[in-house]
Write a structure and sequence with these properties.
Elements (H helix, E strand, L loop, with lengths): L1 H11 E3 L2 E2 L12 E4 L7 H12 L6 E4 L4 E4 L14 H8 L2
Antiparallel strand pairs: 1-2, 1-3, 3-5, 4-5
C-alpha cells in the first residue's frame, strides 16, 4: 500500500506546479497542491474531489474542486479538528 501511495504522489501530485519526488514531503503554509493534468481523469481523483465538494470548508485549506487544487494556509489547531479524534490511537499506531 505504501508503494502505491508513493507512486501516486510522484505521478499525480504537484506542489507549487512542480513534480513531487519526496513521498514524505510536508506541505508548508502557502503551498499549492494540485493534480497533474493527466491524472485528473482518474476515477480515484474524481471520487476524491466529489467527496471534497460535499465536506464543509475548513479554515486551514482553500480547496478549488473545479481546478482540482488547494492552498495550504496554516497548520490546524486542535480546536479546528473534529472532537471525535482519539490522539492516543494515533500515537499507538505510529509507535509500532
Amino acid at each position: 500500500m505504501q508503494n502505491r501511495a508513493s507512486w501516486f504522489l510522484t505521478k499525480a501530485i504537484l506542489i507549487n506546479g512542480k513534480t513531487l519526488n519526496i513521498p514524505s514531503y510536508q506541505v508548508k503554509e502557502g503551498d499549492v497542491v494540485s493534480i497533474r493534468e493527466k491524472a485528473k481523469a482518474q476515477l480515484r481523483i474524481q471520487n476524491s474531489m466529489g467527496i471534497a465538494a460535499q465536506r464543509s470548508d475548513v479554515e486551514w485549506v482553500d480547496v478549488n474542486t473545479d481546478k482540482k487544487e488547494g492552498v495550504f494556509k496554516r497548520v490546524p489547531d486542535r480546536a479546528d479538528l473534529p472532537a471525535d479524534i482519539n490522539e492516543n490511537l494515533i500515537v499507538e499506531l505510529y509507535s509500532k
